[in-house]
Design goal:
eight-stranded parallel sheet; TIM Barrel
């Protein structure tokens, strides 16, 4: 497994395992156990996923040393304030059964995320979090935060896949030395990505699947990927992307698939933002 050095010197795996939408505790716990057994050390969850406790149980049962794992979770919009972030951080640590986090992210650029980020900066300086960052921050929001932060975010987790490539966002992250991380690297199955003719044809040259090509394309762009699956065979296939490289021609061909916008979420839609701001994950 390759790693990347974040802007604060912390080493982070270039591929991890995501648990979004795994709400059944037993399914989530077993999936994480299987993922760790398959070689994943980066596990990505979030308070809003409702499965931090299941992930924590899996970490305990995995038998892997804490220092050999890289655990990330996220602060939900409901807790986007200084005091809210402090309380939510303690809750996430308790749910996960951990004494520190490797990465803590602001889930959405909504609410008092500046107050939340100040709390995260304090926790980072205290050594309670090894790296801090954000999710879904488009270039303008990311630049604004970076210009007013004491600690430049280490990671920005955004939607990145062959059909929404966000090249301008990647340029801004590179300028700020912020590591891009892809959620939805399989585009949530859109465009029949697992059977896409171009990705399949490219994969055939290397004995790889369309899914493996999609993941390899992202990591060759310098993007961390966190695919998810509840099937151990698929987990292992998703990890088998480190023994080949796509050619420049392959990369150029995939670049033509970009449609320039998301088909999964629309952060410009007031109704979507209202939903994010009113969704409560605790009393």
């Amino acid at each position: 497994m390759d790693t990347v050095i974040l802007n604060n010197g912390v080493s982070m795996p270039k591929e991890g395992f995501g648990v979004f939408q795994m709400r059944d505790e037993n399914i989530c716990k077993q999936a994480v156990i299987d993922a760790i057994a398959s070689g994943y050390t980066l596990i990505d969850t979030a308070a809003s996923y409702g499965n931090e406790k299941a992930v924590g149980k899996a970490l305990k049962e995995s038998g892997v040393k804490r220092e050999d794992l890289f655990i990330a979770t996220k602060l939900w919009t409901q807790d986007a304030s200084y005091d809210g972030a402090m309380s939510a951080f303690r809750t996430s640590l308790e749910n996960l059964g951990l004494e520190y986090l490797d990465l803590y992210l602001i889930h959405q650029p909504l609410g008092d995320y500046y107050g939340a980020y100040r709390a995260m900066e304090e926790l980072y300086k205290e050594g309670r979090i090894r790296a801090i960052g954000v999710c879904n921050f488009y270039p303008d929001r990311l630049m604004d935060l970076a210009m007013h932060a004491e600690v430049i975010p280490q990671v920005n987790q955004v939607e990145l896949h062959p059909f929404f490539q966000q090249t301008n966002a990647l340029k801004t992250m590179k300028e700020l030395d912020i590591q891009p991380e892809a959620w939805g690297p399989f585009a949530e199955g859109n465009h029949d990505i697992f059977n896409h003719p171009i990705l399949t044809a490219i994969g055939r040259k290397y004995g790889k699947s369309a899914a493996q090509v999609a993941l390899r394309w992202n990591v060759q762009r310098g993007v961390i990927v966190i695919p998810k699956s509840t099937h151990i065979e698929r987990m292992q296939q998703n990890m088998a992307i480190w023994d080949f490289s796509l050619s420049d021609d392959d990369m150029a061909e995939i670049s033509k698939l970009d449609i320039g916008h998301s088909e999964i979420v629309n952060h410009s839609d007031p109704e979507f933002i209202k939903m994010l701001c009113t969704r409560k994950i605790h009393d």
